[in-house]
Amino acid sequence: MPHALIVGGTGMLKGVPHYFTQHGYTVSVIGRNQNKFEELIFSKGIHGFINPIKTDYSDYEKLAKKLQNAISVYGPVETAISWIHSTAPEAPFVIAGILNNQNIKTKYYHILGSADVQPDGQNKKFETDIEEYENIIYRKVILGFVIEDETSRWLTDTEISNGVTDAVINERDTFIVGTVEPWEKRP
């Protein structure tokens, strides 16, 4: 059975595990909140197995240990979806390093906020460094905003989940959910 990893799968990405379970995957989900895990596991649309990995990804040692355990139990991760807050800047490297050591190619979808494409520059450290990993296929999903009439708003969790799922289905190297232009319309 294929194995997917979703970091943020109990929050704004809570719709993404549905896609993977419907396609026969075991889905390991990293999150902190037990109630949100229970909501996810018992929600409609989950047709397979969810492996809840309850941990704070800013505790890098614990994150590494729990991810390695999930891989040893459920097999190598073929696809990873990763939404990590800037409060844990090393977490993407911890996850990518473990996935790179599996000796299979892993599609790594890095979820980024619209600030990562602001006109005055972009922090590309992770994107640049991950090119060194031979078993990671790096893909970037940028979360933008929606313009409605004369106003703009942030994406809803459903729009985000649907957009990320679309990026996975279409295997795009870079995918923008919503829009990031014009920048001055950003909410």
Keywords for this structure?
187 residues; alpha/beta; Rossmann fold; 7-stranded parallel sheet; two-stranded antiparallel ribbon; 9 strands; 27% strand
Helix content: 25-40%
Number of strands: 9
CATH topology: Rossmann fold
Number of domains: 1
Largest sheet, strands/sense/barrel: 7 strands, parallel
The outline comes out as globular
The CATH class turns out to be Alpha Beta
Helix and strand composition category: alpha/beta
Identify the CATH architecture.
3-Layer(aba) Sandwich
User: What is the first-to-last residue Cα distance?
Assistant: 42 Å
Supply the CATH superfamily name: NAD(P)-binding Rossmann-like Domain
Average pLDDT across residues?
Answer: 89
Following the backbone from N to C, one meets helices and strands in this order, namely EHEHEHEHEHEEEHE
Low-confidence stretches: none
Rg from Cα: 16 Å
Question: Which strand order does the major sheet show?
Answer: 3-2-1-4-5-6-9
Tally of helical runs: 6
* Share of residues in strands: 25-35%
